[in-house]
Amino acid sequence: MSAPSTDLHAPVFLVAMPQIQDPFFSQSVVLLIDHQPEGSFGLIINRATELTVKEVLDGLEIEWHGASGAMTHFGGPVQPQMGTVLFDEGTERLAGGEETTLEISDGIRITQHIGDLSAIAASPPEGFRLLLGYAGWGQGQLELEIERNDWLIAPLETELLFQPDPESVWGRVLGSLGIDPASLPSWTEGNDPERVN
Questions:
Q1: How far apart are CA 44 and CA 72, in angstroms?
Q2: Which of 25, 42, 102, 107 is most buried, by CB atoms within 10 Å?
């Protein structure tokens, strides 16, 4: 059985619907960065962790010059030991420049280069996230989940990427689509119509 085709082009937001009960993805907003026939890659943007950026960077012997209370964020359950920096600054001061960064949208980039992380930590831009792990889907998996209505697709709104209150982003993205989050049905395993006991 072939996977359904969806008109899906990164970058976009994927917004988790209430039937997603997986604690990693419940009420998550994923920045979908790459979508290819062989698989998809993204970063959850609305979930802070309990680790500060300073704590993580101390372990890498990188000095952090940003806010002391800046928290790392959970990017997804795949390779949680791997960090990705999402930032809204040019590449002039970075170790690898454009060669080690990927532009997601105008002025929004990601890097996994340790030299870039060190340069950014020395003078963090206003828009900055250190995300641990990422969200990944195998061939056809994301298309099937979208067809099952697990995810809504929303246009990328760059101003939502660095919100000081990341927990509000899920409702704000739904609101941008004209959906009141309170109007969505609540969903638990007990009332899943597809669940087989």
A1: 12
A2: 42
Enumerate long-range contacts of 167-170, CB under 8 Å, 24 or more apart: 167/46, 168/46, 169/29, 169/45, 169/46, 170/15, 170/16, 170/27, 170/28, 170/29, 170/46
Only one residue has tokens 């026939």, namely: 37
Cα separations in angstroms, 6 against 66, 88, 142: 41, 29, 9
Torsion of CA 40, 41, 43, 44, to 10 degrees: 30
Local structure of 148: helix, strand or coil? coil
Q: Are 84 and 128 in contact (CB under 8 A)?
A: no
Closest C-alpha to 143, from 42, 39, 43: 39
Distance between CA atoms of residues 176 and 125, nearest Å: 26
pTM of the model: 0.86
CA distance 51 to 70: 9
Give the model confidence (pLDDT) of 82-131 as tens digits: 999 999 976 666 766 677 888 888 889 999 999 999 999 999 998 999 99
142: Cβ contacts below 8 Å, ≥ 6 apart: 8, 14, 35, 40, 151
